[in-house]
């Protein structure tokens, strides 16, 4: 749907959006890796019944996600001159080139929200079995806020490309207050193991 929105704004916006998304996804690999790796660490402790240790890891990962998001954003800004230099050798028009500048700037800020949500929602919450919240949060953010406002801004109001791209990039930041609130409730800190009596298990599977 984001592609449909940006595609409505013309070929220049579509071309710039394609390049910006490639750069954004490459830089975001670190944020996604932090979330996946952090989820494994927390999940191991929850599975072992070490709830206090899992909570400690979660707090550290939460701080690391902020640092990782800032570093990723700064890295994107540092690579921005090289990306724009390489873009000159492509078929991008002058207008698309100007769009790309603004999109890369927006992507650099976007990294902070992406890092926090990837670590908490996709990593820590899933490790604790709290998957429904992520589904609900994404559904409300994307389909009730960002996509409708993106369509209105592009199809009805006809806002500038830079503003439309900013609107469709707000999803990660819109989720942050709810994600942090959910994190602080510590519903994800729960024992995932099932205690059983070995004798009962032997009796249950005793050969006939």
Q: What is the radius of gyration computed over CA atoms, rounded to a whole number of angstroms?
A: 22 Å
Which bin fits the share of residues in helices?
Answer: over 70%
Quick one: how many beta strands?
Answer: 0
Structural class: mainly alpha
Average residue pLDDT: 89
Order of helices and strands: HHHHHHHHH
The quaternary structure here is: single chain
Total of domains: 1
Could you give a short account of the major beta sheet?
Answer: none
SS element count, helices: 9
Any low-confidence stretches, pLDDT <50, length ≥5? none
Q: What best-fitting shape do the alpha-carbon axes yield?
A: elongated
Q: Report the end-to-end length measured between terminal Cα atoms.
A: 58 Å
Beta-strand share of residues: under 5%
Describe the structure.
The structure is a single chain. By secondary structure, this protein is mostly helical. It has one domain (2-191). It has nine helices and no strands. Helix 3 packs antiparallel against helix 4 (51-87) and helix 3 (29-47) runs parallel beside helix 5 (94-127). The longest helix has 37 residues, at 51-87. The N and C termini lie far apart (58 Å).
């Amino acid at each position: 749907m984001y592609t449909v929105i940006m595609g409505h704004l013309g070929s220049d916006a579509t071309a710039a959006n394609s390049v910006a998304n490639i750069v954004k996804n490459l830089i975001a690999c670190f944020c996604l890796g932090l979330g996946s790796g952090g989820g494994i660490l927390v999940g191991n402790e929850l599975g072992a019944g070490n709830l206090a240790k899992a909570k400690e890891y979660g707090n550290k990962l939460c701080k690391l996600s902020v640092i990782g998001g800032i570093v990723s954003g700064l890295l994107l800004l540092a690579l921005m001159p090289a990306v724009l230099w390489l873009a000159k050798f492509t078929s991008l028009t002058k207008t698309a080139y100007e769009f790309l500048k603004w999109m890369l700037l927006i992507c650099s800020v976007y990294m902070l929200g992406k890092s926090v949500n990837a670590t908490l929602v996709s990593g820590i919450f899933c490790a604790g079995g709290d998957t429904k919240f992520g589904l609900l949060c994404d559904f409300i953010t994307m389909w009730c806020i960002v996509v409708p406002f993106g369509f209105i801004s592009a199809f009805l109001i006809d806002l500038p490309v830079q503003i439309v791209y900013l609107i469709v990039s707000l999803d990660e930041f819109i989720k942050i207050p709810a994600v942090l609130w959910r994190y602080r409730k510590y519903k994800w800190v729960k024992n995932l193991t099932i205690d059983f009596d070995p004798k009962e298990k032997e009796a249950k599977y005793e050969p006939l």
